Amino acid sequence: MRGIVIVIGGIAHTIPEWAEISGLGPKTISRRIDRGFNGAEIIAPTEHLLRKRAMIQLLIIYYVIFASVNIDKILVAVVAFGLNSAAYVAEVIRSGINSVDKGQFEAGRSLGLTYKQTMLSIILPQAFKNILPALCNECISLLKETAISGYIGLTDLTKAGDIIRSQTFEAFIPLIAVALIYLVIVMILTVGVNKLERKLKNDNAR
Question: How many percent of the chain have pLDDT more than 90?
Fold first, then answer.
């Protein structure tokens, strides 16, 4: 389920970003009409999503939005965590794009590149290197946040540990085992990202 959530979150935040790259996004259109290229601004839907905690979103989606619908609880969790993650990742990408010097964009346009070509070839490759640590942190945070899916009766790793605790009346072993499993997963993700960062640094040094 966690892998599906990460994929859904990636798709959800990629769609508006690709709209901006192609020049069809609301921020791009507004920017071109009002004052030209001057960095992305926070849009209202993303800001509202950021203000709501993942648990509240999960409960609202399950008990309010899908209250009268017989829907799989896994799908509810995927939608809730995907939307929550998409809001944060969209802000991370926006910050990464804004961190690239404005002169890079102007240089690309002066070479005759279109807006889309400039973003894909010049801006985004530099932005990705800047936002990689933040994306890793968001991925790890998302992994840990999925532990609250038991609030809607979904049996995940944490819920399974709690079930074992209620049946054996022994809290130490099942809860410590769950914590160790989360720790191992996080360590694996961290090692993978560190290797990717070193590879990117080596490519820059060449």
Answer: 27
